[in-house]
What does this fold into?
Amino acid sequence: MRIVVFSDTHQNTELFSQCVRQAMDDGKTDVLIHCGDGVRDLEAIEGELLRRNPHIRIYAVRGNCDLTAFQYPGTETANLNGVRALITHGHLYGVKHGLGPLAKAAADIGARLAFFGHTHQPLAKEKHGVKLINPGSLSALVQAGNAYLEVTVDEVGAVVERFIKIHS
It folds into this structure.
């Protein structure tokens, strides 16, 4: 299963659309996750995304800057090829001050993965048996130009993540 993960797009819909097209051109995408702060940017690309891949599963949560996006939950759970995941923006768990509360919340629901944003810093590390994954901020293209994250979960639950740059 191939998953592409975005966060903190902050209304940069043109760049978001470009990156989503790139991700789709790079291979079959089973799941798209948006970890908030710009979650409504999905509305600009959802039609094209579903036309290109009508079977894609989309998960999206609202972040602290998504003030009127009440139709999106603050947290979401997903089953990704048999691996349970928690999806959140991160502000509800204080991720700018430490990752312990997020790791504990994920572990408490039996999740092996926790996707989050908010810090604008790309990250993939394990804590308390949970792999914590932050794609960074698309709008800022921080840390060497990472635009989004690609995660694969194979049939035995092995998880591999790879930060993706925008193709030139």
Q: What stands out?
A: Helices lie at 13-25, 41-52, 100-108, 142-145. The mean pLDDT is 93. Residues 13-25 form the longest helix (13 residues). The longest strand covers residues 146-153.
